Automatic annotation (TrEMBL):
Gene3D superfamilies given in the database record: 3.30.70.100
Organism, as annotated: Aspergillus vadensis (strain CBS 113365 / IMI 142717 / IBT 24658)
Protein name: ABM domain-containing protein
Top-level taxonomic group: Eukaryota
Top-level taxonomy: Eukaryota, Fungi, Dikarya, Ascomycota, Pezizomycotina
Length: 238
């Protein structure tokens, strides 16, 4: 089912444990917020999980019918945030899309890599075209050319559409556009192990030629501070 996917990154108050709703009232409340979102117009499905790199960073990924129907959920999360911490949200149309009448079930893999590289808006049209071709080739290297047993369980990607650009100090233009890649792995170690393979090297090399360092966001405005790669153990919102 085609649509748009919303990504929300936030620092959860350490006292809140949505994994233990029976013994943690605030955790139960947050879990209820996740579940109640399914009643919003255009909602298709969602998953949430903690970052393995920092368990207080939570990522909530929501599939919507389209960008027009997606509501603004950020204010509803405010009571659950750790004090004075950033929150960032963006939208992307992921490809390949899931089968008809299905959504992106990120809980299907033990670990999901979220890779969000940023690129200068000063790239020419030809360079941008080559970048998109390189990203498609990168996917092919991982899902087809890695030896069986090392391939990701699934891999989807898309361009960050809203916001379409972000300020980035390392970009010659001062601004950058982003991509997002989601890859399912058996473990963090399984992902790290493939980085030494020829297939990975061939795929990532051309992308790194244009990729900027870091996410470049203004942390004070909640635009960044979450890095360009995280591993998350997702749970499906039922």
């Amino acid at each position: 089912m085609s649509g748009v996917t919303e990504f929300i990154f936030f620092h959860l108050n350490p006292a809140i444990k949505p994994e233990d709703p029976t013994n943690n009232e605030a955790g139960a409340s947050l879990l209820e917020l996740f579940k109640n979102t399914k009643h919003q117009n255009g909602y298709l499905g969602s998953s949430w999980g903690r970052s393995i790199e920092d368990e207080n960073v939570v990522v909530w990924v929501i599939d919507w019918k389209d960008a027009q129907t997606s509501p603004t959920l950020v204010p509803t999360l405010t009571p659950y945030l750790a004090p004075s911490t950033p929150l960032t949200t963006f939208y992307a149309t992921l490809s390949p899309p899931p089968p008809a009448h299905k959504t992106h079930d990120l809980s299907a893999s033990p670990v999901t890599e979220i890779f969000t590289p940023w690129f200068p808006t000063s790239m020419s049209a030809d360079e941008t075209k080559k970048l998109h071709e390189s990203l498609v080739a990168f996917r092919t290297e991982l899902v087809e050319n890695l030896e069986e047993g090392k391939r990701p369980r699934g891999l989807v990607m898309g361009q960050v559409e809203r916001p379409g650009t972000r300020k980035h100090g390392d970009s010659p233009s001062g601004e950058a556009f982003g991509m997002v890649v989601l890859a399912g792995w058996e473990s963090v170690e399984a992902h790290m192990d493939i980085k030494g393979t020829e297939a990975f090297g061939r795929g990532i090399g051309p992308i790194r030629e244009w990729m900027l360092k870091g996410d470049g966001g203004d942390v004070e405005k909640g635009e960044g501070g979450f890095g360009i790669m995280r591993h998350v153990r997702f749970q499906k919102v039922e």
